[in-house]
Amino acid sequence: MHLRLITLIVSLFLSLGLVACSGSAPTRFHTLSTVEDTVTPQPELAKRLASLGVGPVKLPSLLDRQGLVLRRSAVSLDVSEQHQWGGQLKEEFLSALTQRLKARLPGVRVLTVPWELEQTPRYQVALNIDRFDSVPAEQAVVAGTWRLEQGEDGQILQTQDFRLSEFITGDGVSSMVQAQSRLLSQLADAIVKQLAQSDAIAQP
Q: The pTM is what?
């Protein structure tokens, strides 16, 4: 009897384990796209810049995590365990934005932090991100501040707040990540436009 009871308990635990394994959804990993269809190069601005550093990007602790942040309301957020960034979001953000700036500034030596001392760029764009999340099936939003600095001494030449949004065209998480990728194209456009109008950048 004792042996039969032990066998029954072991069988029960094995069954529960199989049910748990079969019911758990696989983790999906996502990355920000670095591919764009159309960009508008800014060769005149490129002549004035010569070289541009991008970064660092600072994220609040809420965003500095693997799980995607989904906004439910102004005061309610979900952090997904099933849908996660393939790498560190800070690095994903920095890499994708750098690629977009390179496409818009042909001929400019665009560097991503960190760089060697002898490669110090003439100017540097650093970013503080306050928000980078999505409202499912509605919109993705990025908000924060970027600043233009002298590359050699870090002197701040210009500061600009931004808040950009992008409609989500589908229901799945992939559609949200695609919208967030498009936001970085908007951000690159906004940065380039402000730099082109800035008196802080010397004429060639």
A: 0.85
Q: Please answer whether residues 33 and 73 qualify as being in contact, where contact means their C-beta atoms are separated by less than 8 angstroms.
A: no
Sequential DSSP letters for 86-137: SS-HHHHHHHHHHHHHHHHSTT-EEEESS--GGG--SEEEEEEEEEEEEETT
* Nearest-angstrom CA–CA distance, 50 and 43: 10
Residues 152, 32: Cα–Cα separation, whole Å = 30
Per-residue pLDDT of the chain (204 residues; tens, 9 = 90+): 455 544 433 443 444 344 344 456 789 999 998 777 678 888 889 888 999 999 999 999 989 999 999 888 878 889 988 999 999 999 999 999 999 999 999 899 999 999 999 999 999 999 999 999 998 889 999 999 999 999 999 999 999 999 999 999 888 889 999 999 999 999 999 999 999 998 888 776
Phi-psi region of 154 (alpha: psi -120 to 50; beta: other; left: phi over 0): left
Domains assigned to the chain: 28-197 (3.40.50.10610)
Peptide bond into 106 cis (omega under 30): no
